Amino acid sequence: MEMGFVNGAEVTVIKYAPLRDPAEYLIKGYHISLRHEEAAQILIEKIDSQL
């Protein structure tokens, strides 16, 4: 939770590793790399970024 994993926080995928695991995410100013099995434990809702 200290790194921004709270309800309502916006998460952006920055890049994937060459074999697509892990991926780098941006959340509340932090760059975080997570493996897919770790990221699968986080509930997200996709929003349209072209508002």
Give a verbal description of the structure.
The chain is built from one helix and three strands. The chain has one helix at 36-39, and strands at residues 11-16, 23-27, 30-34. The chain has one domain (1-44): Ferrous iron transport protein A (FeoA) (SH3 type barrels), CATH 2.30.30. The protein is mostly beta strands. Strands 1-2-3 form a three-stranded antiparallel sheet. The mean pLDDT is 84.
CATH class: Mainly Beta
CATH topology, by name, is: SH3 type barrels
The span between the termini is 27 Å
What is the chain-wise order of helices and strands? Answer: EEEH
Outline of this structure?
By secondary structure, this protein is mostly beta strands. 8% of the residues lie in helices and 31% in strands. It has one helix spanning 36-39, and strands spanning 11-16, 23-27, 30-34.
Topology (elements, then pairings):
Elements: E1 11-16, E2 23-27, E3 30-34, H1 36-39
Antiparallel strand pairs: 1-2, 2-3
For this entry, give a set of tags.
SH3 type barrels; mainly beta; three-stranded antiparallel sheet
